[in-house]
Amino acid sequence: MLVIYSALIFVILIVILSALRTRLVFELSGTSLLLFDTPRPGIILYSVLVLPGTVIHELSHWLVAEILQVRTGEIVILPELTGGDGEERLGSVQTERTDPLRGFLIGIAPFLTGLLILVTLGRLFSIGWFIVLVRMRITPSSTIYDLSSTILTSLNLILGVTAAANLVMIGGSYGTRRLVESLTKKRIMQKKGRSL
Question: Residues of 110-119 as b/e, b for ≥16 C-beta within 10 angstroms?
Fold first, then answer.
């Protein structure tokens, strides 16, 4: 039963983090728009905040493509504004067209890498840095249920901490945006389907 609750909490945290990401980008972009008449500095600030994740994400695509002998091109890890709608793209890796199986494996690589890193961080956070090698090992007597429970608990812990950190950043960004709005007598409104 614990695994089911943990899985449900995991899904809820993923949904919450997605909403928080959208709100944080809005707050940073909105403040930037008020101060500089462009959302770009806010998007750059956001990209700096998530730069480690962007690097890991893009390198995961690149590494799996190289392992599967799919030619790669330029790797971009700095933000790009695409189109006229102000949509941001934090990074990309150019790869040649390939068969569906290799394309799927290249596409899913960051998800698997991210899960592995999050589980490891969750375990480090929950048991402490000094005894991690002792506590991380999986014994042959571990069942799939125990392993699933441990993984989900670790994921939920680090996702919860991440959500809390996002809430703090959103609160600070919101306060800054409201202050700038009152000083400049301008107001940023969030339109349906768009950040600004």
Answer: beebeeeebb
